[in-house]
Design a protein that fits this description.
Blueprint (H helix, E strand, L loop, with lengths): L2 H4 L6 H40 L15 H4 L10 H28 L5 H37 L5 H38 L14 H12 L4 H6 L4 H17 L3
Helix pairs in contact: 2-4, 2-9, 4-5, 4-9, 5-6, 7-9
Length: 254
């Protein structure tokens, strides 16, 4: 379904030409914003991998072993180089502006459905992305805390532990709304597409960041271990990558 089939252009010559030009410009912008979002999801996911794809054994780090429950797999960051942590965090921060235009694309792709529903969906996705940037960036500091915890003498570890505890509270406070907003926005997206009034095909109602995250978690179980290790931590952005690929492909020729 295309914009042209939903809104018949006026038949007068000059107006019809202007309408056609406007639609061509809009289609071009939808392609560009979708492509930017795809690139952003790839780079964001790369940042996740740089931060979280390492593997370590606590047996090799006796100073961290007493805090296994507190660290909860975050001890993997103890083996990362400073540059890897820095770029892993900054990639997510600096590529968020690439992802945000993708929600503008989604807004226009949902045109035809209830306007309040469409606007709310796009805004919730955008707000979640902005808050998520903060969450991603803070993993750099978590890595620094963990490495410091492994380096200081045991009598000084208490100070670092307290910092990690406070840091985890901040992560929970910020991560929770991100997840809630993405879940709500994904449901609203599927509801809007399911009405059959948008520019997306109705099968796109099954494609959103939540369903693609679930699909990735299921797919991971049958993938080779080397692929699972290489993509560790990037599941959410892999889901967004598939989501934006689908929205861009389905809107490519409208």
């Amino acid at each position: 379904m295309s914009f042209a089939t939903k809104q018949s252009p006026p038949q007068s010559g000059d107006y019809s030409l202007r309408y056609k030009k406007t639609m061509e410009q809009l289609t071009f912008l939808l392609r560009i914003t979708g492509s930017l979002a795809i690139l952003g999801a790839i780079l964001y996911g790369t940042g996740d991998v740089l931060l979280l794809s390492s593997k370590v054994s606590l047996n090799e780090y006796p100073k961290l072993k007493p805090y296994a429950k507190l660290l909860s797999d975050a001890e993997r960051m103890v083996a990362l180089s400073p540059n890897r942590m820095i770029w892993g965090a900054l990639l997510g921060v600096f590529t968020t502006p690439l992802v945000l235009p993708g929600f503008w694309q989604i807004y226009h792709g949902l045109e035809g459905a209830n306007e309040s529903l469409v606007l709310t969906t796009a805004l919730l996705f955008g707000i979640a992305s902005v808050i998520g940037t903060f969450v991603h960036g803070t993993f750099y500091f978590m890595g620094e805390y963990i490495q410091a915890l492994n380096k200081v003498d045991e009598n000084s570890q208490g100070v670092i532990v307290d910092m990690i505890v406070r840091h985890r509270k901040v992560l929970i406070i910020t991560y929770a709304p991100v997840l809630i907003l993405v879940i709500i926005a994904s449901i609203l997206f599927s509801v809007a597409v399911g009405t059959g009034k948008t520019h997306f095909p109705t099968w796109m109602a099954a494609i959103n960041p939540v369903t693609m995250t679930i699909a990735w978690l299921l797919l991971k179980r049958i993938l080779p271990q080397v692929i699972r290790d290489a993509a560790e931590g990037a599941g959410f952005n892999i889901a967004y990558l598939v989501f934006f690929l689908c929205t861009t492909i389905t809107l490519w020729k409208i």
